[in-house]
């Protein structure tokens, strides 16, 4: 809840970048390293960590949970797909869901995650909730990795404006020893290993106090079996879903087809223009090359290589230009989208004007000639 | 001034309108009607036939005794961050309630707190105690301007709750797009919305809006431009195609306008972050959004930002690869096939349009969250649009050389009726030039033969022209013009082989400024189809006749001693430097002859001074023609943007009055100034035979959906083949004519018949369309004021 507010007590110790950003970066580095597909953020508050994670391309499922629906709702729209996500659907699929509920309760929607983050969460839990927390996260959710961060109370002496706790809603703040013993006990109880680290280095000479934020990274020691996810008898959902966004993805046939059609027509049009301007014996002045030129050169070189193969050569016949599908298929973007030539043919069938034998994209250039 | 502060506070509350300072788009608070005594009682006309109409306005209802409570929220000690302020305040939700709107200092609640002043205590995360004082400052009735702004904000919240995506000012539904792969376009259906106080009710005016999005990035577009135009013209082509377009970025939900392209920078270049550190774009996007920029050679786009406060100008650099295009370029607009394909999806006929709106209102009724929000505020919307009666005013009779015609009101066109009838005033073509390239020799001859066939019945005397063959180069055309055009030439006709603008511009520039002779450019392509050549030749003959000072037809103008003025503006979007105001004024009783001038002004200058000079010369010319000064002046002012009404009322009208005063102490003509607006949200549908149709031309609406504080009315003056007809809004902002509203409406409608480039009724009064044509020609091609020798002719048609 507090992680986004500027650390106002940094008059003497100023962290750069701010501590909350360092915590988020820590999570992101972890994501980059382990490439989890399903990530849940418990105590997601204003969703800023989730927002950052949605740009990580390995993640396909993102979930947030918070006890306060209002704080989630305030900025949850930042997790919605952007117009451009519809315009250029990404290859991966992504679903973002926000749940309203408590980490002291089990809900089946939290099963099957690879990474669960609890950033500055546990210190907000009441004693009774904290007691149930390990069973819910490690016993029930049982993800491969759990990240838990919490203030290190030993550091507080360097923060003169902090009276008792760093935030009035904190129920406790632990020393390194307290946190580590809790973490080790929890880990051994649920068959996890744990590594300790932190962000917010202490000033030189004060290394003893440790990081400002202490972090424990827990790794599940046993492999996940399909059984372990499903072994639980069907149980009731106790969380309330407050937000759900399914991102457009090329995994969805509808979006894939649109993308392929548009790419095929786009590519064909470029080839056509090249062809037409060659016919008009239009030549670029080699003296005047801009910085922008290289990528263009690559493109025309590529085209040059292509047309060596005879059957792939685009040609003009009467008022029509024919661009073989094989040529179009050999373009990296089209190729990557479709995978196989058959798939390409299937996807554009009936949507793009083809030659009578279906082997080439056909354009009528009758009207265009008049245009110029 | 309290009201002002309220509005400025509310602006923060509103969902962001990007990239610009917010204006009072609805011109709230400009009350012009109160100064016009003769329309205090009634501003409605009476003539014509009644017609049952329905519209796209939906009544907003609030429960009885509804009020909005406005509070000022103070913090002690003072808290800076807006989010902190909200967080601290909403620790007290049990006092304040769940329903609220808060912008950091002004709080709106649907309920009255127990005390006028409520003190609350909160604690910040670092243990600081803060006293919050919530003071009731206003109890707003439903119709107060602040409330209206508030409704609009709430309505936008609702649209957001319905999962519509905001792009620019409107909201769109991304889940069901129309894809037009041939042109790489995607169309999203969405809604415009505004809630205003209308004649008797507060209503939501909503219309279907289509957002054209393009499935390509700016970089894609640059690549395809490069392959089309080659290296040499590449940068120019990019500037022409891209500057002024609105882009969406890959990483946030903002729109930016491309103002410039910086070719000296690329993604590897660094920029200074707000904390002062330097970082390259590549690094920044990787770090901030985990986005890899693949092309490191692309240039950088520049978007100017107008900051909210203090108007500080800053600019944002954007990476072409990460920007997606929206909207249409001029080039796309001129692509007939593309527009045709688009129109299929965007031109919704009345029934379908109403159905889409019905769907929106249905969503609103059905969505629990939306209903809850509305209920909490004590508001609700009718789900049926308002209906009322309008009037269809009588059709005009068209007079042409003693003959009189009625036109079929269904088509609003008299091309057929007037064919073969002599023109009111036909100008001889005794001496004229026909310039063409070798390739177009045949076309030139075809045109000539056809002109010889169509001109006699119009009463135009035509000799053989001097036929001149030129090379297809701009210089060749210019050289011929310089050698062959003399002052006794009536008109110069150029046949152009392509629509390349530079040639056209050069010809127009020379013949409008250096050597003032009317000119007619024709594309060879338009003459190449044998089946349409006679129609084309007829149109060209009429157009040329007007350019030389001829007159075609007239309608009855019952007012005597009247001068009619039309003003429109053109803003140069490409160079962004110039604005041009076109000014035309009638010269004769039958308003068939027009005097014209224009004002070319650089950015930031006010148009007003120039217009004053125009009016002075117009009056001088009128008196030369009529041997007296006009006793009535009507100004039809087009080209007024949303939110500019105040400027017009307070600066432009006084300048007109000043100008009239300067003519002579004993000269005080009656003046009427009417603001003409083509882009309005209102749509009218005629209930005919159980279905909805477009209302016929001549439909006048001056009740229910007009504004109580204005003397305004709508006229539907044109017809459309597809889609919905758009009414034109007329707002009489100044009027000492003492004429009845009915007469002003009738005069306005009559003037829509007088545009000589179209033998039918058009959407605006002819003087506005003439002024538009003039401003467009000057802005697009000539860039300075044309020679005044031409000022009594319609050379700009």
From TrEMBL, chain A:
Necessary cofactors: Mg(2+)
GO MF entry, a single one: metal ion binding
InterPro entries xrefs: Hen1, SAM-dependent_MTases_sf
UniProt keyword annotations, A-Z: Magnesium, Metal-binding, Methyltransferase, RNA-binding, RNA-mediated gene silencing, S-adenosyl-L-methionine, Transferase
Example GO biological process: siRNA processing
Catalytic activity: small RNA 3'-end nucleotide + S-adenosyl-L-methionine = small RNA 3'-end 2'-O-methylnucleotide + S-adenosyl-L-homocysteine + H(+)
EC nos: 2.1.1.386
Top-level EC class as recorded in UniProt: transferase
Keyword Metal-binding: yes
Recorded GO CC terms: cytoplasm; nucleus
Family, per entry: Belongs to the methyltransferase superfamily. HEN1 family.
Protein name (record): Small RNA 2'-O-methyltransferase
UniProtKB/TrEMBL annotation, chain B:
InterPro entries: ArgoL1, PAZ_dom, PAZ_dom_sf, Piwi, RNaseH-like_sf, RNaseH_sf
Domain PAZ as annotated: residue spans: 217-327
Domain Piwi residue range list: 491-783
Record keywords, A-Z: Cytoplasm, Developmental protein, Differentiation, Endonuclease, Hydrolase, Magnesium, Meiosis, Metal-binding, Methylation, Nuclease, RNA-binding, RNA-mediated gene silencing, Translation regulation
Listed cofactors: Mg(2+)
Gene Ontology biological-process annotations: germ cell development; meiotic cell cycle; regulation of translation; regulatory ncRNA-mediated gene silencing
GO MF assignments: endonuclease activity; hydrolase activity; metal ion binding; piRNA binding
Cellular component, GO, one term: cytoplasm
Principal subcellular localisation of the protein: cytoplasm
PROSITE patterns recorded: PAZ, PIWI
SMART domains hit by this protein: PAZ (SM00949), Piwi (SM00950)
Subcellular location: Cytoplasm
PANTHER family associated with the record: EUKARYOTIC TRANSLATION INITIATION FACTOR 2C (PTHR22891)
Family to which the UniProt record says this protein belongs: Belongs to the argonaute family. Piwi subfamily.
Protein name: Piwi-like protein 1
Taxonomic lineage: Eukaryota, Metazoa, Chordata, Craniata, Vertebrata
